[in-house]
Hints:
alpha/beta, five-stranded parallel sheet, Rossmann fold, 46% helix, single chain
Amino acid sequence: xxxxxxxxxxxxxxxxxxxxxxxxxxxxxxxxxxxxxxxxxxxxxxxxxxxxxxxxxxxxxxxxxxxxxxxxxxxxxxxxxxxxxxxxxxxxxxxxxxxxxxxxxxxxxxxxxxxxxxxxxxxxxxxxxxxxxxxxxxxxxxxxxxxxxxxxxx
Length: 154
């Protein structure tokens, strides 16, 4: 059975670092919205087309799950409506659903965000106002969405 890891957290919480550090151990394919933005920027497509980016995230994740591969979805998924597609994919592919919740204090996320190099998507500074807004609106994962919830702190 394939497993779908849905990373959930605001910018600067450590999602992409966790994905890079755990993909080999979990034998998982990482599907990252930021990496797709880089691909779009290097092609004729705009990296700011959120709907097109997430259509491609969904397409790639679906193909991997249907091939019985474990997938790590690397995006903020900070609202339930933003992770509904992932849960639908898991159901379609019969995958086990694990939320990896990055429960980091706002000040830690703001500090990490400020240290980014701005060289590529995923390593660019997000405006503090946006990080604060996401933190204020954040909806933690719950047992009705996922088979398992892993909470990462610090």
